[in-house]
Amino acid sequence: MSVGSDQQDIKREKILEASYQRFLHYGYSKTTMNEIAGDLSLSKALLYYYFPDKSQLYVAVMRKIAGDYLILLKSRLEKITDLKEAFVFQINTHHDFIVNNYNFFDSFRLNEQNLPDTIWDIVSEMHQTEMKLLSDIFKSNVDGGKIRSVNNPDEIVDLLLDALHGVRVRSVSHKKMRFPQKEHLDEIHAKRLLLIDIFIKGLMY
Amino acid sequence: MSVGSDQQDIKREKILEASYQRFLHYGYSKTTMNEIAGDLSLSKALLYYYFPDKSQLYVAVMRKIAGDYLILLKSRLEKITDLKEAFVFQINTHHDFIVNNYNFFDSFRLNEQNLPDTIWDIVSEMHQTEMKLLSDIFKSNVDGGKIRSVNNPDEIVDLLLDALHGVRVRSVSHKKMRFPQKEHLDEIHAKRLLLIDIFIKGLMY
DNA sequence: TTTTGATAGATTTGTTAAAAAAGTCAGCCA
DNA sequence: TGGCTGACTTTTTTAACAAATCTATCAAAA
Q1: Looking at chain A, which runs of residues are DSSP E strands?
Q2: Alpha carbon distance A112, A162 (integer Å)
Q3: For residue A197, which residues of chain B lie inside 8 Å, CB to CB?
Q4: Three-state DSSP class for A41?
Q5: Is the CB of A11 under 7 A from strand C?
């Protein structure tokens, strides 16, 4: 990946961590470079020594938390063989990822158009990795004879992810609140379990 | 419902129609009472004779188009017995309703908070009616032995609607466009057919 | 090589006056 | 007298512009 001394990498990490906290609590546009520098007792100019500009600093933070998310997902899914269990874990982990970083993602909701396109590469990579992990489990379930063979496993996995996503979106947008309440989380979870259940039954012989 | 002479009702209708056209083409906030009055060659004051204020005029238009939508849905679904066909029709009709009135609904997207709460009653009523129509078909399919009995048909119907909804949302929000393109509509449609297929299979014996 | 203070240039924010819109009302008229 | 209007008041939006804040740069210090 990147070259540089250990010292540089450590400082880079420190900057990423401080930036993450700011972005997380105040969002992208309400975070200033001065504040980040202040948190680290550094000069603002140093931030520009390590990162070309604010937007690319943001993308770097995004890359980091996306990476952490994927590592968590991977480590757990590689041990899971049950298809239902796999989807439940995926959907819960993804949900936590969104909820825990809600403010961080406000640059997506308000479409902050000055962000570099590389951020979409990260989004795309996340999706591809999720798909790959689940598809593998799916295929091994097909091979194991637990569900019937289909000609396009990836499409099926993608479809179920879409459907599960819809369970959250609808239950939120229906009411005027923008974000699911604690009470609703259980309801969403129950609905998703039911959906996975029916869907997988529909894939059996 | 409302009392008044036939003449009054006719004028009311004319106002609703003219308002609808304005809201549809320019959205809520970019439509003025003067323009609506101008289209009808009436004075603005007359609008206030028939409707208490702008927001309630908007709600009245909403109630009208929601009513039309539900009538269309009802007339067709009452003749459909096949569960799959019913869901396909529902989802397509709903989609058309949203697409055809896209600008009209901009008051929802930008959350125009000065709209009266009664608008949510309409949304709620739409959903309930949709549910009722589909649930009836669902139940008659259960009775006919085509799918297995479940303890809560409404919940199942609701779930499938959520899931189908998700197919559209994900395929849109994934890319940065806010609205599905023509080319995507076919893809969405195909995905939904597949989802309905698998889901209903999962409900069989 | 890493760090900074000073500073230029761009963007956001706050302010205020003018314009446009919502909403009201006394009275006209068929 | 119910339906309608023009003229009016009040509220909201827009435009312009100065002040403040923020991003980004750079010469020079550590």
Answers
A1: none
A2: 25
A3: 202
A4: coil
A5: yes
